[in-house]
Automatic annotation (TrEMBL), chains A, B, C, D:
Statement: the UniProt record of this protein carries the keyword Ribosomal protein: no
Protein name listed in UniProt: N-acetyl-gamma-glutamyl-phosphate reductase
Recorded GO CC terms: cytoplasm
Organism: Radiobacillus deserti
Keywords tagged on the record: Amino-acid biosynthesis, Arginine biosynthesis, Cytoplasm, NADP, Oxidoreductase
Subcellular compartments: Cytoplasm
Amino acid sequence: MKVAIVGGTGYGAVELMRFINNHPYATLELVIAHSQTGKKVSDVYPHMQDVWEIQMDELNVGELQKNVDLVFFATPPGVSKEIAPSLMDQGVTCIDLSGDFRLERPDVYETWYETTAADPSYLRKATYGLSEIYKEEIQNASYIANPGCYPTASLLGILPLIQQKWVDPATIIIDAKSGVSGAGRSTSLMTHFAEMNDNLKAYKLGKHKHIPEIEQILQKESGQLLNVTFSTHLIPMTRGIMATIYSDLTVQKSTEDIINMYEAFYEHAPFVRIRANGNYPATKEVYGSNYCDIGILSDERTRKVTVISVIDNLVKGAAGQAIQNMNLLNNWDEKTGLDVLPVYP
Amino acid sequence: MKVAIVGGTGYGAVELMRFINNHPYATLELVIAHSQTGKKVSDVYPHMQDVWEIQMDELNVGELQKNVDLVFFATPPGVSKEIAPSLMDQGVTCIDLSGDFRLERPDVYETWYETTAADPSYLRKATYGLSEIYKEEIQNASYIANPGCYPTASLLGILPLIQQKWVDPATIIIDAKSGVSGAGRSTSLMTHFAEMNDNLKAYKLGKHKHIPEIEQILQKESGQLLNVTFSTHLIPMTRGIMATIYSDLTVQKSTEDIINMYEAFYEHAPFVRIRANGNYPATKEVYGSNYCDIGILSDERTRKVTVISVIDNLVKGAAGQAIQNMNLLNNWDEKTGLDVLPVYP
Amino acid sequence: MKVAIVGGTGYGAVELMRFINNHPYATLELVIAHSQTGKKVSDVYPHMQDVWEIQMDELNVGELQKNVDLVFFATPPGVSKEIAPSLMDQGVTCIDLSGDFRLERPDVYETWYETTAADPSYLRKATYGLSEIYKEEIQNASYIANPGCYPTASLLGILPLIQQKWVDPATIIIDAKSGVSGAGRSTSLMTHFAEMNDNLKAYKLGKHKHIPEIEQILQKESGQLLNVTFSTHLIPMTRGIMATIYSDLTVQKSTEDIINMYEAFYEHAPFVRIRANGNYPATKEVYGSNYCDIGILSDERTRKVTVISVIDNLVKGAAGQAIQNMNLLNNWDEKTGLDVLPVYP
Amino acid sequence: MKVAIVGGTGYGAVELMRFINNHPYATLELVIAHSQTGKKVSDVYPHMQDVWEIQMDELNVGELQKNVDLVFFATPPGVSKEIAPSLMDQGVTCIDLSGDFRLERPDVYETWYETTAADPSYLRKATYGLSEIYKEEIQNASYIANPGCYPTASLLGILPLIQQKWVDPATIIIDAKSGVSGAGRSTSLMTHFAEMNDNLKAYKLGKHKHIPEIEQILQKESGQLLNVTFSTHLIPMTRGIMATIYSDLTVQKSTEDIINMYEAFYEHAPFVRIRANGNYPATKEVYGSNYCDIGILSDERTRKVTVISVIDNLVKGAAGQAIQNMNLLNNWDEKTGLDVLPVYP
């Protein structure tokens, strides 16, 4: 299968290349990078020397449609909504790592992204690609909106409790923490090393674009209209997301009860690992891999449950899940090309 | 005023020495360090060379009582409860950075610390030294239980809302994050550099000794029996604590309303700084200083308030607040010896 | 091929398991870990959950000899010299990641390691496993002394210039910098996070065990008796070694001349990448991979050459090179099981 | 004494403000910051809230001359050479943290800085402000060229050996390592957190602007024409410089001999601390302070000396030394305003 990457110089793209390099069925035909046309991937990422010497091209939709079977968008917000429709019209399968097609309602997109939404007729064709939860839909999709990094960690962490109705969805609070690579490769004072090293920052409180994405799925799965309290913090580390999720239990369940339920829920999910009682995952324990590791505490004193869910934001939170979705789409083993272990320590 | 430090080789002690070095009225007479008797401070902490060449001694209560006016305990749990009573009997003022005299109820101490509590008759003589909240009690105290690092950040962050009854105390969730120096100087796999660098860990969920300390004050100030949900995370940085505090608003108050109330509440507190609307403090912005910086968001969508409270865990969370309490005890200006700015970046 | 790992709880062992997991011809039969007998690998390394659930055993030489074809030693100094001889006698192939069999002269070992050397008759059977330089010897070896991390980076960086006689070997100065994982998993104050984070330390100046190892090869390849100035620094990062190597040029050669010579020298070495003029490798650019990346500057002002050589200390500096040597021994493609890209950023 | 800072938003300026805040004789009258005119210091640096609420101004040389006694330049290269001459004409004392007046020869400046040098008639009036070495010249100076961070660490580390003629100056190699704050506050891909964290980079090999500055002083003090080999590396930490300096001994001197000589050399230098035999300084041990700590090894095997010299690049390498020079100029105690201890850990 011939694939292309649009948006070839960001961290999402470079991680896609890492996994495609290990993938037996996919070959990388084209890398589109407007700002770097003519340069080789290894000029921009020296760690790719001798591996990806492919030259980056300008976007040409006709060429894309002619030469490749599948297009990955690893673009900033606002790009794929302009380009994807013509690819959809031509029947090119797309996996979109950006947020442009994740929100079903254009008005919600416009409120949070502060720009025009994609054409609703195309929006309707997109499938939300949270692999473990929407496997069947993904297998039949033509356009996959790959989930955001925070929603992936948060939703995989809390959905089993929602679906079992063991928690009150209106009480969910998600305190999320991310490594700095989540902010991308564009430089800013916030991500300047001297300002971020040995430091801890809260940011975009109450304003993060991933809030409506999480709410959309929580509402769908709980059947309730609800708003979620979701906070984001920048951690002085490169990769990794941890979502610490709090919710009121509606039934009396011990930590063991909940762990058993999660293990059953994710029985056929090779990338989700549930930790034993008293054991909570650290982000480094999934570093570089497609795992989502989950630890659980049911606190009898407070009658609340605390869920710790960790992923590598660039893998399960972006490129890894995109490859997983490509596998699902093609009925390949979900793990194809993704069977690398976490790099620890 | 002649002071002694008991527990001379930990981070609390070494920070006390940094501030005593700048203090015009206090001189360091004795450093007690059981395990390092005979060594100089600078043998254990080379950064003190030419500054603190004082030799460390064995504990001798009689000597202490004879030679010093005030004793700082910078000891692990379980030490001061054995030693302090005889000093109290002799009328030696003490500021205790450990947790031994913070909890009023011996049974609560015994549940959380898993060891015998101090003698209740002595326990009753201790004053909880949260400087900004209990200034008058501190000024008249003879034994000060210096607050824990997490409780300091958490309580300074939430108490104004409690006292105003603008939040429902039963809904408080505190998601706390700490730099690794909070774990002290004893080595462990958890704080081993290769395991902690570029990593993020949740730990002691539902079990942290600071939970009953926070609850004790929340109960006292709210007049309600309540349990608090409090989680702790280890951040790959040396210093700093951030408490992200969530609570349900009981009244409709905007972010500006709450900021104004906090500014009034802390009008005479030189070490508490309230950030403007939309501005949230980062831990590095108080690094090395005695400040507690607070940012506030009232979220209209969720009717919850989020408070971000940051301190340097070794300063306002330990040695700095201890010096502040020594100043209060002696009716010196609260800032004496503590007027260093944050070291930024 | 059935393999065993002796010393199963260190970082070398856990990296071996990462690569064996990807290796098509090697299966892990036994993990020997004296201190953790009965535990599973994933008990000690939670990131291995669901992957390596193998139980760790006590050492039993007879069992080893009966059940496996190849033994990896990932043990501290002083262990393999006791155990390996009986395996050698039984004809079991070994790859030893420790330093016990690297030094040909027992007296040199004893001076630097401050303990008795291995029996000379066994020492003579060991082959120094610097894969790119001693490929043929390795292919015919029965006992491979896998090189140290610093020697690997240093020697791959300077040997082409030595063999061409373009530098004066007596003038070589190696200023080496390492990530903290190089110090292993045993905790110490030096590698305590609060002491090492945001810090930079020089250590073991003039005393590092890798000095005689580097000298042995420099002497062999240059034919000169010489002592090398070699300094080691601990960098606040987890993985990576950089050797900055200085030497006086004996001939006038431009940077381009030297780059061309290196490219020819390493033409058949898939894991050595020579950077273009003006481009110097960073350690993160080989993170998690078996590459050694080399940058070169010939400075006309000083008539000195500066070589920057970087590796991942746990991969090319330990487990990766061990797998590469296993491949060479078996006449498998050198890259088998090692074709993972650097994890960047 | 009334002072002004020109270049008010960089790290040099913000450190000057930290020390001026503690200084009994200097008051900050004006902060000039072209790009931020009208904003307060605390708008740009929130950690300064309630401390430095001073508003930043446009440059107006007449105002400067009228209102202040001393001007600090904390500007990028190329700024002070344009502005300073008119201040010199007006008799305003200046301390220039930039490189514009450090090099005596305009042609050397132009080669390394790739721009026109300052007018030679003004260049001649500048005094190189390496406090410990040129104390008398500084006391009589009117324009002080404050040394660069790398030259400060390097020269304080090696000059005693040069002046004693115990080393051959032509053999000096300086392998220098710096925290990332040395690159300033302007963002770049090189100092982007995700690219620099957990990473180690060599940069500007053979091209750094501090090379001619070091050579100028080495030549002056040794009386020899020489070129120095000087390499720079970026360390994943915020502050700190370590210079590892190698040179051939011309006489047989033990480590103890050299330590004794250094102690005598720096007997009256309160900010230089010589470590005992076998003890090497780490950068964190001077963090936030004006110390330069030096460790020494005389290696009998190689007949080379290795000197480890560490400073905080923003303090002794910039703002701290500038304050020290202001003190010398005014015949105040050298330590005035600078008596803060290192912040450790």
